Amino acid sequence: MDKIPKNEVIRKIIHISFSIIPLSYLWYFNEKATMLYILAILIFFAFVIEILRTYLNRFSNLFNYFFGFMLRTNEANGNLTGATWLLIGCIFTIIFYDMPIAVSAMLLLLIGDSIAAITGKIYPIFKIGKKTLFGSFCGFFSSFIFIMNFNHTLSPTVIFFGSIVGMLVELVPTKINDNLTIPIFSGFVMTLLDTTI
Q1: What are the φ/ψ torsions at residue 128 (nearest 5 degrees)?
Q2: pTM score of the predicted model
Q3: Separation between Cα atoms, residue 134 and residue 175, nearest integer Å
């Protein structure tokens, strides 16, 4: 059993806390337009922060003082942070898919990806690059169970295969940030299955 770096634990806690976005969509802001408006505002502020931390030294120093320990190397070198990519992934998921599928795809990203990363680092069993099959299985199982508790529309089969695809996307290394690819691909598969099952 390996120890998880503190910065990764905090990153994943923040990642999971973003579940407020799909759950708010499900419970409070049932209109797609309302959620898109809220996310557009959040993305605007996220990009303002990204620009300021890149081009304004005083802001960069302040940002790094509070959040620098959490940044990965590519983020510290000027790439978008995971939080900004997460918001982008959420807004595109809501644009592309109906609410039940969008909510499920976002929860799959927020819960499944986090659990996969944490368990994969604690128990690095069957490693594939920097990821592990064990972590992906735990991410699949936890996200499937979690989504089933909040879903009252989609069939278990649709969620089951959507969760598998989401965790496969998480497992396979690509240059595109998985905060974007996981919900988009899993949502696409769930949409296809929901129209045929």
Answers
A1: -130, 100
A2: 0.90
A3: 22
pLDDT digits (tens, 9 = 90+) for 150-173: 888 899 999 999 999 999 998 887
Tell me the CA distances in angstroms from 175 to 79, 110, 135, 170, one per residue in order: 12, 19, 20, 12
**What does the pLDDT look like over 15-34, one tens digit per residue?**
899 999 999 999 998 899 99
Q: Do the beta carbons of residue 88 and residue 94 sit within 8 Å? A: no
Burial of 116 (0-12, 13-18, 19+ CB in 10 A): buried
Quickly list H helices, the chain: 6-17, 20-27, 32-55, 57-67, 73-76, 82-96, 99-107, 113-122, 133-150, 156-171, 178-196
Would you say the C-alpha torsion 63, 66, 68, 71 has a positive or negative sign? negative
Residue 37 above 70 pLDDT?
yes
Find out whether 132 and 124 touch, Cβ atoms under 8 Å. Answer: yes
Nearest to 12, CA basis, from 130, 121, 118: 118
Q: Which residues fall within 8 angstroms of residue 39, CB to CB, at 6 or more apart?
A: 21, 87, 90, 91, 94
